[in-house]
Structure formats: structure tokens, C-alpha cells
Design goal:
Ribosomal Protein L9, domain 1, globular
């Protein structure tokens, strides 16, 4: 059985994705990924859709929480 996919919303940063997941673009092309990778959430990465740490330089702030 495959490992359950987990997406963690990092405070003021990226979306951390881990597990058996395939990342595809609108046309169905598959991005090469590792077992765990980060997706840009600030919109300023030079390596979209992946995070390159730019959120730290631009002062991106977002700390969403799930309802309990």
C-alpha cells in the first residue's frame, strides 16, 4: 500500500508535500519530484510551482489554521 499523502501548510512559507503523489501541470505533463517537496504559496518563487525560499526575502505572512 502507498504512503498516505500529507500536505502541511507551513507558517509564512510553503506547502510541504510528502507521500506517493504525482504532480502534473494543466496539460498533464508530470513534474519530477522527490518523495517530499515544497510548493510555492507566496507566488514569488523563481522555480514555480516549487518553493525556492523567496517567501523569506519578501516577508510573506500567512498562518492559516484548520477549524477544530
Amino acid at each position: 500500500m502507498s504512503e498516505k499523502v500529507k500536505i502541511k501548510v507551513n507558517d509564512n512559507g510553503s506547502l510541504r508535500v510528502s507521500g506517493d503523489v504525482e504532480l502534473v501541470d494543466k496539460e498533464g505533463n508530470v513534474f519530477e519530484t522527490k518523495p517530499s517537496f515544497s510548493l510555492c504559496r507566496c507566488g514569488a518563487s523563481g522555480n514555480k510551482p516549487f518553493c525556492d525560499g523567496t517567501h523569506k526575502k519578501i516577508g510573506f505572512e500567512s498562518q492559516p489554521r484548520a477549524d477544530k
